[in-house]
Specification:
By secondary structure, the chain is an alpha+beta fold. 57% of the residues lie in helices and 9% in strands. It contains 16 helices and 6 strands.
Length: 374
Amino acid sequence: MISDTTHLIKINDKVNIDLKIINNFLNKKIKNIESIILVGSFGRDEGSVLVVNNKIHSINDYDLVVVINNRSDYPDVDKLRIELAMILNIRQIDISFYLKSKLSKIKFSMFSYDLKYASKIIYGNQKILDLIPKMKSSKMPFIEGVRPLFLFLSSLLHAYPINKQIDKNQLFWNYQQLSKSILGFSTAMLIFDKKYHYSYLKRQLIFKETYDDIELYNMVKWATQFKLEPNESLLLNNENYVLFWQNVCNTYLIVMKNCLEKYYNKNFKSWFAIISQYKFDKINILKYVYSFLFNQKKYSDSIHINIVEFLLCVILNGVDDKKHKNLLKHEYNKISNVVKIDSSFNIENLVEKILKRDPNSSIFIINRENAKIF
């Protein structure tokens, strides 16, 4: 983090104050909380902050798991996230809810693995994690390598340089999102090679030992450094940033193609082939069925949002032709409750629209004005 002792004390104080605010807020809003668990970067002591003019800014979002005893106690999660992020003056809060009775049956995933082995209980039952079954990282399901590849497409799009002249504040957050996308695809690579680790720093070392590509490793090293110790010296100027984004996007798509070929055990000769395979794989077919039978559009919407974000990255990476744009329009118009677009739509405007519809990224836009640093 930061070597200066005074800064470290201030940072720890800031985080502790934030956690007290979180505990008080959630206990006022939710009944019968069994435990509140801090997961993600701060849960494993890798949360990043930036000190500017003696003011401390939390760069990572707080990821929280709230364990409750009764299903009737589930609150409006989106409303909670937005309100709490504004109170803390940070870009994003993630909150997940679990019933205590379900923890012993929790599925093996990257999230559940990190929850058990790389988290902190900040309120309530201190032995709650003992209920979660033991897991081995080397047996991480490959689907957990696919999920971050689709999840962090939104980070790439958040970082896209719509305006070629970007102010310092936006430049910082763009780099922060790029670092997330790099760490996303590098994590996927390690999962497919059965070498996942919950620590960013440890993953960087494993990555270096596993892969020979120096340029790729340097990208991961930069992203890890920015994640753990963000500072102004890691920011390039506007011109270099545009080139850097293009390089990261191109690398991301190559890694994504390679990983999906491993997952589906197929060679994909086009982006269309990847989309077709993803759209109609077993998991997504079940989502379509569930959406239809129970009128839960969010499940089918999630598929179309992922495809739209993927196509936007492909097009912005240079594959700008009529076929890809037509498919992009087709998939976007399938999302429920959107204003339909026609063939004359603007790509850059669509970036903003889809990020607002993506539940994993919309709060980042909503809190844009509350997270100015410089």
